[in-house]
Every structure is written in structure tokens, then in C-alpha cells.
Amino acid sequence: MDKQERAKPRVVLGVSGGIAAYKACELLRRLTESGHDVRVVPTAASLNFVGEATWSALSGNPATTEVWESVHEVPHVRIGQGADLVVVAPATADMLAKAAHGIADDLLTNTLLTARCPVVFAPAMHTEMWENPATQENVATLRRRGALVIEPAVGRLTGVDTGKGRFPDPAQIFELCRRVLARGPRAATADLAGRHVVVSAGGTREPLDPVRYLGNRSSGRQGYALAATAAARGARVTLVAGNTELPDPAGVDVVRIGTAVQLREAVLAAAGDADAVVMAAAVADFRPSEYATGKIKKKDGQEPEPVTLVRNPDILAELSADRPNRGQIVVGFAAETDDVLANGRTKLARKGCDLLVVNEVGEHKTFGSAENEAVILATDGSETPVPHGPKEALADTVWDLVAGRFAATADGS
Ligand code: CTP
């Protein structure tokens, strides 16, 4: 049967021998419950952490380790050939080394050699092992060949250690797998590989006193969708996030900020070597001119003191003017309530960015919603309408336009 005709996408979940194998059970559950046919291929070492019975019971399929079982079905070739996605989670340093060098000494490594579909590795190991030049070179090799190697998260590791190397949240790895599957064949998957992109998201809060601030209603969802879709397309992503409650997308480096001034510092620091910067954050244009170190109190019989405001820096205009990295693409957002397109055109010229995503905001529109509708204006005069749909779809259209500009720069056109 042709892959397209099958009712359920086929996913191979490769599990290598790290303690995070137990977290892969949640990834498996999410994959099966959302209608994927999952075949778990554990390494022999991983069975020390989670046994074969767990994988078979949760997947509803046999979970074999060696190529010598059911040989008549030629599993070392068939499993990889039939897959729509292979995700290795957790991927140990040893597994990355084997995959990078084409070693095929068990069922999982054979499967990696026969799979033509997108391949995702979710590494988990101690910081020293992740940062070792051998591992880093293996990761670079795998990425160059089109695999998606998720950056590990930073946090508590096995034992008392803390650092980079933590297995990302299984729910977020699942989201990334879903996005990769939706993009189809391997060639279409990692079109932002080798690129560093910076996305700002959420809203800034400008403190008035220790308990009050001036803020806005941005949920951060559009910026998070931009960060997550870029990671699923192979980019290294820095997400500068202001005041959101959303979970960190898998593989994304998240920098948290509070105020517009902090946002500016974080974005400019990350933008130095970035190929693209997308300013999806809702930045406060003004901040209170003075910060009261103690809570502002009511005074009997007196009117309140007026709050005076000062201008915040315009980060998008500054980024567009400076561009430390030649050829850097800068994208802005315009939230408008009236004369949406006309205001958008004026704003594109005023800010000096390459693309401006213009959307209408209001009481029940855009903020906090999972959906969005926009027109993307470009400096060449083009307009790309994005119909009402998930914020993820708008994010993918933004990256399509950015990737098109990267390709045009590479061609010299
Ligand atoms: N932006 C920024 N710095 C600011 C204000 C806005 O970088 N101080 C960015 C936003 O992240 C967004 C774009 O500029 O990408 C447009 O934001 P918007 O609030 O629509 O525009 P403003 O410049 O605030 O213009 P106005 O308030 O006049 O509509």
C-alpha cells in the first residue's frame, strides 16, 4: 500500500539506553492516542531502563531489538522503509555516534540506514557528553544530512547535576513530531537547517511600583508558534519570551524577559549572528518615567498623582537599521484596530523591516486565540494573504517567505 493511502501514519520510535527512556513512554502514548501506528525499536541497553513488555503493550506492536527475530519479514529493511517518521528518543551520545557513522549493529541502527523519511533525534545525556567535540561533530554531520537533532533542554539531569542535556518535555517532542509529519517528505522538512533565527514573543510589562505594571493582552502564542515551527524546520531558535505561561517548545533556547528594555537587550544579544529576527512580541511603547520602590498608597482626600510616561526604544526599527549580520531578514508584526492595510504599509516603511505581518486585533480577535488571520506585506510591494487558521499555519507562511529570501540571497538574485 502506498504511504499516502494508509489511514495511520507510521512512526518508528527508537529508544536508546538512557534513563530518559521512561519519558519516551509518554511520547509513545501521545503518538498512539493521536492516531499514529507506532513501532518501538529499543536498543538492548535501553531495556535496562524500560522493558520490552511496556513498549509492546503501549504500542500494540512487537518491540524487537535485534535483526535476528522474525527474519523472514526482513525487519532490518522493512521497518525503516515503511516509516513516515523515525524519532529516536532518547538519543544517547553512543546512538548519535553510530548514526553519524552509519554503523548498523542492531535493529534500530539498521532502521536508521534504511529510512528515507524524516528522522528526528531527541538527545539526552550529561552536559559533558553533549558538549564533547565528538558528539558535537556527530550532531553536525547528522544535521548536514537532513536529520533533525533537537537541542536538549537545560535543567536537572540524573543525580545532582544541572545543565544542558535534559530530555525536552515529551509533550513538546510530540508537537515537533506532529509538525515534521505534516510537512511530509524529508527534503521539505529541514529547510531552515544551519540557520539561526530569533523570535520575540509575548508582552512586556513596565513596572510602576513593586505590585503594579503597565502591560498588554498578548498571550505569546503566535511567537511560540513561530519558534516551534522554525525548530521543526531545522533552525537553531532563540525565543525571547515576555510574560507568557506557555511551555518551552522542544529544542528552542528560551530567554525570559519582563520589560521592553530587557527585551531589547536580549534580542540584540541574540541577533548578532542571526539569519532572521521576527519581532512578534507586543512591546510597550511607553513606560512609567519613575518606578516607585514602595507601593503607591492612596492618600485621604487627595486626587491620585498622574502617571507620566517616557518612550521605550523601538527595537524593530533599530534591528532593521543596524543588521549586524549581512543579509539578515527582519520581520515585524503590526497589530491594528482600524485601517489595517493602510496603516500596515505606512508601518512597513517606517520600521524599515523586510516583511510585516499585519493583523487586526480587538476585543475578541487574535489575543489569546489559537487562530489568526493576516496579510504579510513585503518591501517589494507584494502582499501574501493568510486566511483564518491556526497560528502555526501563519508561522509556516512567514518561514516560507523568509526561506525564499534566504534562497534568493544564496543565488545572488
Ligand atoms: N515594536 C518594537 N519596539 C517597540 C514597539 C513595537 O520592536 N517599542 C515592534 C513590535 O514587536 C512589532 C512592530 O514593532 O513587530 C509593530 O508593533 P506595533 O505595536 O503594531 O507598532 P508601534 O510601533 O507601536 O506603532 P503604533 O503604536 O503607532 O501603531
TrEMBL record:
Keyword Magnesium among record annotations: yes
InterPro entries (UniProt xref): CoaB-like_sf, CoaBC, DNA/pantothenate-metab_flavo_C, Flavin_trans-like, Flavoprotein
Reactions catalysed: N-[(R)-4-phosphopantothenoyl]-L-cysteine + H(+) = (R)-4'-phosphopantetheine + CO2; (R)-4'-phosphopantothenate + L-cysteine + CTP = N-[(R)-4-phosphopantothenoyl]-L-cysteine + CMP + diphosphate + H(+)
Pathway named in the protein's UniProt entry: Cofactor biosynthesis; coenzyme A biosynthesis; CoA from (R)-pantothenate: step 2/5; Cofactor biosynthesis; coenzyme A biosynthesis; CoA from (R)-pantothenate: step 3/5
Positions annotated to bind CTP: D285, K295, P313, D314, I315, L316, F333, K347, K351
Annotated cofactor note: Binds 1 FMN per subunit.
Chain positions covered by the region annotation Phosphopantothenate--cysteine ligase: 197-413
Keyword Phosphoprotein tagged: no
Renumbered residue ranges of the record's region Phosphopantothenoylcysteine decarboxylase: 1-196
HAMAP family: CoaBC
Function: Catalyzes two sequential steps in the biosynthesis of coenzyme A. In the first step cysteine is conjugated to 4'-phosphopantothenate to form 4-phosphopantothenoylcysteine. In the second step the latter compound is decarboxylated to form 4'-phosphopantotheine.
NCBIfam families xrefs: coaBC_dfp
Family from the record: In the C-terminal section; belongs to the PPC synthetase family. In the N-terminal section; belongs to the HFCD (homo-oligomeric flavin containing Cys decarboxylase) superfamily.
Protein name: Coenzyme A biosynthesis bifunctional protein CoaBC
UniProt organism field: Streptomyces catenulae
